[in-house]
Queue: 4 jobs
Job 1
Amino acid sequence: MILGNVSSFWNKPKLIKLQRPASLLELFFDIVVVALIGGIGHKLISEFQHNEYTWHSISFVVLQTLSVLLIWRTITMYSIKFEVHDLRHRLVIISCMLPMSLMATAGYVHNSHNDAYTIYLNTISYAMLMVVVAYILLSAARFNKEDKFFYWHLMIKGLARVVAFVLIIIKIIVPIISEGPNSLGDPKWKEFFVAMWASEFIIQMIADMYSFTKKYMCHFPTISRHLLKERYSILYIAFLGEMLIQVISSFAGEKSHSANSFIFLLGSIFQIFLMFWLYFDLLNYNHLKKSYKSMWIYTFVMLLHFFSMLFISAGLSLIIQKHARPAILLLAIGNAIHWTTSKLVLYSFKSFNRDTRYLRPKWFHSVLIGLFIIGIVTSSVLAYTYTSPHILIWTVIGLQITTIVLLVVTLKISIKKYKDMTLEEFDKIVPTIKQDW
């Protein structure tokens, strides 16, 4: 950074024509997002531990997690496309991380859903985050007026955050005017809070979905499938690290241990490692299609993918802490969403790799989906009926290992079948990648 040249350290947000890699600051931003989701997960675990969960509290956890992931996606794609490595870029990212850190703190407070001051901390921090995101998007719109399409694209997303901020303020003011400043923890306001948060999330999601129209993709040709894979992969791996820390801390926090708790600890760690293995294979042996429809599907499916990991993490922690029934429920839901979204992500990829001459057979996806449906449904019912989490955990691990074995077998068969082909010959038999933007 050369301070003598103003443009080198304070640049107006302009569309970057050449794609740049993520900065270390943006990677730190990813870690803060994962810490925030970890706080939400801790809140979920605490409520099940003390039998304080209600449909209001679960709805709140779901909506807050999805809202945070949506904001992460918006800021990530914005900063990479409109910001360079300068002072403004640092201020933009740090101004998002500060309220997120406060929201994460609120998640680690015991009985946070009934404590008025913790609710103030979480809600006001979220309002601050909306202000920052709205400012970022609207200022970018202001400096891109010459491009009408991008001007309205950024304006719509920014105004959606302004509306969300207004709804957050209403959510705080109405209970205070009605019953005083300590009324936010009153259970009778829970439905109102959930309804307002759902409204904020839906407004933001609709505004962001505008980014995935065909016209937008054609107008924005520099988004790369490699960039998407890189950014989502970084968050996914950071999330797996958070899951591992959550499981280990749950085991360490127990006053006494038994053979069962050691078995659950090993099973939980094993499942997390296998989740990484499968995702690593997915990236190595697949090509993301470049059609706008698959990009739209990929983005929102990956958000659900991350959301499912919250439930899996909470379920594994609760099993170690000997809360069997809620753990089975969370694991069943989390694994069902995770495996379903995994299959959707698999379908959004072309299953071949030119360098290794790998071409996945057509029956592969069907076999995986059949195994998934039979395994998850059967093991979940049996585990809940007999209050035996062992059944569910080891079934999921068995499904993961089976998937890995299938990957290895198809890889070996494919390499043996096509190893003597030239690249030109191999290209003639692989699926055509749609190039519509």
Note: The longest strand covers residues 287-288.
Job 2
Amino acid sequence: MLSSVRVRGGALAASVAVLLTGAVAAPASAAGTDDIPIAGTFVYNGYNDPSNAEVHGAIHAVVRVPGGTAVYYSIGGKGASPGAVMPTVGLASSYPVGAAWSVSVVDTSGLKLYLPLGTSDRKCLCSNQSDITDYGGTSKPEVGWAILPPLPKDLKSVTVRFGFGNLVVDVPVTDELPSPASAKAPVILGGGWPQLPDEASIKQADPKPSIRPLVSNVADPDTATKRSSDETAISVDSDVLFDYGKASLTPKAQGTLQKVAAELSAKGAGNVSVVGYTDSSGSESFNQTLSERRATSVQKALQKLVHKKGLTFSSSGKGEKDPVADNATDDGRKLNRRVTVTFKTGGGQ
């Protein structure tokens, strides 16, 4: 479990900056004399492309506020340039271009995903990417924020998801905002915390569009699970498992399949059906063959990972049939590239 590490502001804020950016940073201003909470850190490459420079980040606090939930984070490094730190908004998105929208809270017990609140005039209650990035990156971490819907009252800790799927687990949910607040942007880490919208603005936002059931929110997690009283279906993003147009599992697929295998070992019974799907790129015959080969690769991998008596495995492919999204868009095609593992639930042995 990750604990909240607290570092004094001022001179030692420079040490935090070094941790997050890998660069020497000047001491923070005197305004940042309060503690700097750090619930967890992460590193990834700009645009989620290994050939680009790194982005270093941290989740600082998840705080209950009137009408919502505030998330404070910071990012920096040579890869922290506009557009590189998170996916761009789609045409159907309720967020404006340039919003730092990819900040969410995962409630694993309630199976809910909480996204930033949006207003009726298509504004995001969140930082702008211009407030946390700069062309060529940033040498010192800059602090961002997002206001999400209210969390369940009994929720003590959550998983925070940032950017291109970076997860920080066991982040405490508190009732105390860090201080002091700063109305200026950008806010350098150690120099205070961005001032949040007022209570009236937060309460005017409709929370319903920003709360997604995990079972249907296939765009956000690498896997989406749908359960009924006697059956479970786990859909895995093919882009996590395979290189584009290929059927050999990538090294990063192992971790995702281990999670699926753990679920099978704990609850699976009877036959495990592995079905591959593709988008509509390429010919119909190519897509059909690719979906079958991918399903076979996943089946073989799961058979090596699961050693539970009574389980049998089968695989098949449906090619570009049964799409779950529009193949006319990049986001839609990404959702359609998937492998689904379906099994009866009969408890563990």
Note: The CA atoms of residues 68 and 150 lie 4 Å apart.
Job 3
Amino acid sequence: MCYNVLCDKYATRQMYGYCPSWALDWEYRKKGILDEIRHYAADIISLQEVETDQFYNFFLPELKHDGYDGIFSPKSRAKTMAENDRKYVDGCAIFYRTAKFSLIKEHLVEFNQLAMANAEGSDNMLNRVMPKDNIGLAALLRTKEAAWDNGVPSDPAQVQQPILVCTAHIHWDPEFCDVKLIQTMMLSNELRSILDQAGQSFRPGHKPDSSNVQLLLCGDFNSLPDSGVIEFLTSGRVAADHRDFKDLAYKSCLQKISGCDKPNEFTHSFKLASAYSEDIMPYTNYTFEFKGIIDYIFYSKQSMVPLGLLGPLSPEWFKEAKVVGCPHPHVPSDHFPLLVELEMTPTVGTSNGLISRR
């Protein structure tokens, strides 16, 4: 499950004047959000725009009652703030069902720090990318026996499979499409490093092979399906002169970030597929001023098979209820939750010590 829950401080009457004040109030909305989470009862839940205080004092204790544990990180600005102000900073959270998964390691990806480290003297990198303190958060999980709903693998060594779950909240402003794409490229590069390390730890003595670790990438990418961000993630490449770079001088920085030696494009080797297509989900964010797809669940298509997903709310209901935008008394966020059921393919050991898939 992937869900941007709309942080309380962003839920203002100025932004959402069509929603009654009582229905914008966090004390009201949080009950509806928790009800949705509990209703769908996903094994893995990724949330964006979670306020720090609400993670520790609401979401985590409530979901622990339901058999989950979770990790969280606020946006990078929290490090510079007083303790009392820090608790209102929003961030990303990942929850997992403890009967099915154990947490091996968590990873925080801070885009402003990566921008500074890879600036290569670029004013655009320092002035446009670095000030945006969005984050990605990743949890390296290991499956337990209970995770295999369709039958436990016959080989006990295959029961405990690594899976990397990553959620991210990419910068929002459409005028900064270059920043969105660069943040996504930085995230991809960090995930490659995490996966290589994980592959090595699960197969000590062998060459690092990130394909041994299944990847789930979900979040609010603030990017439409025809954007450079989604092109990069789904096709594995983006042209160096893509329009989203705005003809700004990023090339040397991006070659360093991507580790790609191709002069005219930047690539990654993940084989990702989007769980949702435009014909299934016409919008994931629904406000008076904007309706579109900006939230996504991507999965490793060589090792996961989609079995089903949660579709959109009925267009007829929107018309009949005269819903011009969300939040709404019956819809607690301006984003809709995404939910996909995936079947994992267990890995199989081969005589030469390599890993293959069934």
Note: The two ends are 26 Å apart (CA to CA).
Job 4
Amino acid sequence: MRNKIPAVTFSVLAVFFCLSAQAADLNVKGYIAPASCSFTITNSVIDYGRIDPNTLSPTSYTKLGKKSTPYAIRCGSTAHAKIGVKVVDNRSGSRIAGLMTSQFGSSYRDNYNYGLGATAKGQKIGGYVVHLRNSVADGKPAYVITDEGYGGTWDPRSSEALGHTANISSWRTGAAFTPAQVNTVTGNLEVQAVINKTAELDLSNQVNLDGQATLELRYL
């Protein structure tokens, strides 16, 4: 009996060594990522050129003309994604509170009001609004919808205004007010500036409009 015990023990060890020698690793890999989309603005500088001070009012705000430039979002050859645009106003400190409400109506709250910078003396120059016009998604008319920071609650923006801060703007192509899966979106980015009352500006020196905003493409 004493001779059998080592034999059994050895036999078991031999089986384990045999299994270990034939082991192989199985790796499961991959990645989950949204479609890769590009966002381009044909002319990223909206230039009003020289503005004659005599065309501006000393006692009320003055709207300047509308200017626009094409924009395009493209998501690869066949990829489709739900996308939106989030905007950061890089001149937020120069906003004139209530400016756009006074010029365009109650729906243009300050989250649709972009600053135009300030003079050397810190006087606020004015502001501007941005609209997404004539949007087309995959050959179909597309309509702007906006989540004003409520976590996926989308509202129609018949004005097509593009807000900043907590706002995210997207497009629908059907009846439902939800972002559409799209491959391409094209249209025009329209800007309209409003100048402060000249009585509140030092016009003895040149005043430079200095609005700047960053438009970020978001995958929803």
Note: Residues 36-219 form a domain with the Immunoglobulin-like fold (CATH 2.60.40.1090).
